[in-house]
Design brief:
The protein contains 10 helices and 12 strands. The protein has 331 residues and is α+β, with helices and mostly antiparallel strands.
């Protein structure tokens, strides 16, 4: 690996490095000043390909990077940072994105844990709505874009309450005819990675892989506890602790929706982000999946009545029962 960039170094005659603000397996992320647009801060995502790879493979990887960077630069969504530029500098390639101020959700969750509190479910579900919007936008592109590395530390809460999905490090574009292109080959973070994303092959990953990661992210945010990773769950089916066993304040509906998203087999998960969002926040019925490690108890009546379809049926039944009793009394 080449040494990191130095503070004050200028790339492309435009981006003046201020400091390194992140580091990953393929390079660093830098905070920089845009010297052409005074006052604009930007984030430079660095990609350095393994120099042990054959030169032809590295050249193909860089060509793919530039192709995908072009796709990312066309994206425009309030919950995604804008990619404004991309370029090569020596042996490294760079994506230039809007700098996103604020704390990432992992930091907020860890603060709550240190204070022996949980993040409020209502607040987490409000964030989930915004995350759903960003992922739906990515998945609706032509061809669809799969993020593949959704996790609390890649989600930033801006001061005005806007959530930004900030890292495109493992983004995958589902090109036609089963050809897959990946900016950086990788597997994501184990805690949030579905089984199909292991093994180095991209052939089995699709938008349902993001749904698994989304569910695992919500699990962590709601419980302060990392979920058992997919490999461990495959070998030990009861290793994933039910959410309400950790945080009893969570609604039964929320627990069931999150566990549905975290199903090990892709076919057993929601098929789209919107389907998952409706199960989590809307009125869609959730499949009655067994909850690992727990015998099902009767659902508390208020949890039951809090869900719109069930509530309508329950209140209707109660009204009919009261009318029947009144009719009996009148006789």
């Amino acid at each position: 690996m080449l040494p990191p960039l130095k503070s004050g170094e200028v790339l492309r005659g435009r981006y003046k490095i201020r400091e390194r603000i992140g580091q990953g397996g393929m390079g660093s992320i830098y905070l920089a000043d845009d010297t052409r647009l005074k006052g604009r801060e930007c984030a430079l995502k660095e990609v350095e390909f393994d120099r042990a790879l054959p030169e032809k493979v590295r050249d193909e990887a860089r060509e793919q990077f530039l192709c995908e960077a072009t796709v990312l630069a066309r994206l425009d969504h309030p919950n995604l940072p804008k990619v404004s530029d991309f370029f090569s500098h020596g042996a490294r390639d760079y994506l230039v994105m809007d700098y996103v101020p604020g704390s990432d959700l992992r930091t907020l969750m860890m603060q709550a844990r240190r204070n022996k509190n949980f993040l409020p479910e209502k607040e987490v579900l409000a964030w989930a709505e915004q995350i759903s919007n960003a992922l739906t936008f990515l998945h609706m592109q032509d061809p669809p874009i799969v993020h593949r590395d959704l996790k609390p530390s890649n989600l930033k809460l801006m001061p005005q309450g806007l959530i930004k999905l900030v890292d495109f490090g493992l983004v995958k574009i589902l090109a036609p005819e089963e050809i897959t292109i990946t900016i950086i080959q990788g597997q994501g973070t184990a805690l949030y990675t579905p089984l199909e994303q292991y093994g180095g092959s991209d052939s089995h990953t699709d938008i349902r892989s993001d749904i698994y990661s989304f569910g695992a992210t919500l699990y962590h945010l709601l419980t302060n506890e990392p979920p058992a990773d997919a490999r461990k769950r495959f070998l030990q089916p009861n290793s994933l602790m039910p959410l309400r066993q950790v945080n009893p304040a969570i609604a039964a509906r929320t627990e069931r929706a999150v566990l549905w998203a975290m199903s090990l087999h892709p076919d057993e998960r929601p098929s789209t982000i919107d389907e998952f969002r409706q199960s989590l926040l809307g009125s869609r019925e959730i499949p009655l999946l067994p909850i690992p490690g727990r015998r099902e108890r009767p659902q508390p009546v208020w949890d039951y009545l809090s869900n719109p379809p069930e509530a309508t049926l329950a209140w209707g039944a109660m009204v009919l029962l009261l009318l029947s009793l009144l009719a009996t009394l009148v006789r």
